[in-house]
Write a structure and sequence with these properties.
With 376 residues, this protein is an alpha+beta fold. It has helices at residues 9-14, 88-97, 112-135, 141-147, 150-169, 174-187, 191-200, 250-255, 262-273, 275-288, 335-345, 358-365, and strands at 2-6, 25-40, 47-52, 58-64, 69-81, 220-223, 245-248. A five-stranded mixed beta sheet has the order 1-2-5-3-4. The protein binds zinc ion (ZN).
């Protein structure tokens, strides 16, 4: 039987991960202070997790068979061991040796580094499981292209890359490594677009307000520019971007005769999104005319080539750090944009009471506010 002390945050982050079995091994996680701790058992064999107070009281003792997150009570030491091992004889050693060990792990175990690695691994494993379930054996590109959205495929290849990176230094389950290779091979021709989509092509409609920009009644976001019929599925996500959509209800769609009035559609989406729609529009036309710049780096500029927009989100940048879907607040609108909006919204009389600009203003003011304390 072997007792190992895990002191540094790196040691603690890996723990029993990638061990075939813990057998007789007893892993003791030593922390300098008390705290609630979240453990995970991804990539770990079945194990017993025990949480101890500073004076050796057992606060938690559970057998964990499945891969999952385990929330521990406030504790000082944590022991991981094989399911059948009696850990109690080791408590005294842990208590007596711990204070003499170098206190390398001054960082709290719930810090970002540990949390990030665990979260990524958890996601990577879940993704690779989905691949296994979808393909049952060899990864076939046609199934991959039919079954998953571009942004999901981007996340899957990121996970595959992550698992392969890990497999250089850790012994990972063979199946996961094999699947990761074959996913990357199958997706090779589409990598640029789907990796861009994994950041910029994620769904957003459920988080955005869905009030009609004209009357304020419940509405849905309607895309304006349409892809060519033969467009590859990997690029369709750009037409699903918020910059190509307006929230408008059925009633106003009818009243404005919107479906048959293309210039009205453009006025609405152009006015709402200003330079961000202009950038998307340039991409749309360059694609149609096969004039996209050769030097376009989709990893840095996933939305559109940098010359189509300004340097900031407000002025139409498509850079990676600004690529997540956001509502139209703070878009830099000129007087032309505002005129286009008003021209389109107020071109027809409202039935009954004129709602004025309140619904539009509400939409323009909507933003995702990061709660205080979560911004660092
Ligand atoms: Zn309406």
């Amino acid at each position: 039987m072997q007792l190992h002390f895990l002191i540094s945050s790196e040691q603690r982050a890996s723990g029993a991960m990638f061990m075939e079995t813990l057998n007789e091994t007893v892993l003791a996680f030593i922390y300098p202070t008390d705290g609630t701790r979240t453990f995970h058992t991804f990539f770990c064999p079945p194990m017993r997790i025990v949480a101890l107070s500073a004076d050796g009281q057992v606060l938690f003792d559970e057998l964990i068979v499945k891969w999952k997150w385990v929330r521990l009570p406030v504790c000082r030491y944590v022991i991981e061991t094989g399911p059948k091992v009696d850990y109690r004889p080791f408590i005294q050693s842990v208590l007596s040796i711990a204070p003499d060990l170098p206190q390398l792990g001054a960082i709290d175990p719930n810090t970002r580094m540990d949390g990030l690695v665990f979260a990524l691994l958890a996601e990577a494993v879940a993704d690779i499981r989905r691949i296994r379930d979808a393909h049952r054996g060899e990864v076939r590109p046609d199934i991959q292209r039919r079954k998953f959205e571009a942004w999901e495929r981007g996340q899957i290849v990121s996970s595959a890359g992550f698992i392969l990176d890990f497999s250089r230094t850790w012994s990972l389950p063979n199946g996961a490594v094999k699947l990761s290779y074959s996913v990357l091979k199958a997706e090779e021709p589409y990598l640029d677009e789907i990796v861009a989509a994994s950041v910029a092509g994620i769904p957003w409609r459920h988080e955005f307000p869905n009030h009609c920009m004209r009357c304020g009644k419940p509405a849905s976001w309607r895309p304006i520019l349409n892809p060519a019929p033969n467009a590859p599925v990997e690029i369709l996500w750009r037409y699903q971007r918020p910059e190509n959509a307006i929230p408008i209800c059925h009633h106003c769609t009818e009243t404005l005769n919107l479906l048959r009035d293309e210039s009205l559609q453009i006025d609405l989406v152009w006015g709402l999104w200003g330079p961000r729609f202009e950038a998307l529009w340039q991409w749309h036309h360059a694609l149609k005319n096969k004039r996209l710049p050769n030097h376009w780096d989709l990893y840095l500029q996933p939305l559109w080539p940098h010359e189509y927009g300004g340097g900031t989100w407000e002025t139409g940048s498509g850079a990676i750090h600004l690529a997540e879907p956001r509502p139209p607040r703070d878009v830099l609108r000129s007087e032309q944009h505002m005129q286009a909006l008003r021209r389109a919204l107020y071109s027809k009389l409202f039935r009954g009471r004129q709602p004025g600009e309140a619904p539009l203003q509400k939409l323009l003011d909507f933003g995702f506010d990061i709660p205080q304390g979560e911004s660092q």
